[in-house]
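To: structure desk
From: M.T.
Subject: fold request, one chain
Message: Could you run this one when you get a chance? Sequence is below, nothing fancy, just the single chain.
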Amino acid sequence: MNRRDLLVIAALGSCTTVVAAADSWPADLAKAIEDYDRATVSNDFATLANLVADDYVLVNSDSTLQNKQSYLEDFKVPGFKLDPYELQQPVHKVWNDAALLAGVVRLSWTLKGEHNARLLRIAHVWTRQDGRWHLAYTQLTRIP
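Reply: Done. Structure tokens follow.
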């Protein structure tokens, strides 16, 4: 697998496909997370572009960085299919206009006809800007 493939996989691993304990979130944040999760597993570029902050930063599991534009382009890779999964060991924190959703995910995907899986620790930081929640930061750490 080449470096670009690994970056795509790491970037796409940022979905969480879960709104566990959504009742503890503000309703508009739970909706934003649900919309993001659905858009991530269906490669819905337009919805993701609307939910990801303009100054978004993704720290991939190989320590490389991506911005919003680079991150979104990864969702256009032909033949990519991310399998739905759930957030384990969830951490949920909300502070006024910022929130943290973190935990562990077993990411599995198909790319170029090859199925792969990886265990990751993930952290998403959401911020409320102009009355709407946006994903501002994601960090992925590979778990051996």
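Reply (cont.): Strands lie at 52-59, 65-67, 81-82, 88-95, 98-111, 114-129, 132-142. Let me know if you need anything else for the meeting.
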